[in-house]
Amino acid sequence: MRRFLAQVESIGLYPSGQSGLRVATPARDVPRPGQPFLALQPGKSESTRTVLYPFELTPHGFLCIAPPDRIWRPGDELDLLGPIGPGFKPPPATRRWLLLSVDTEAEPLLPLIRLANARGAAISLWASAIPSDLPPDVEVATDLPASLDWADFVAVNATPAGLPELRRLLPLRSDLHIGVRAQALIVGPMPCGIGGCMACAVRARRGWKLACLDGPVFPVEDLAW
Amino acid sequence: MVNRQAPDEDGPRPSPPWRSVSFTSGKRDFVLDLPWTNASGTLGFSTEAAPLIDFASLGAFITNPISLHRRMPASGPRFVYSPGGFVLHTGLPNPGLPSVVRRNRERWRAMACPVILHLISDDARELVRMLEMLETVEEVAGVEVGVRDDDPTGAAHLIGAAASRELPVLARLPFGARAIDARAALDAGAAGISFAPPRAVIPGPGGMSITGRLYGPAVFPMALETIARIRADGVDAPVMAAGGVYRRRDLNAMLAAGASAVQLDSVLWTEPEAVLAEE
Question: Which fold would CATH assign to domain A96-222?
Answer without folding.
Answer: Rossmann fold (3.40.50)
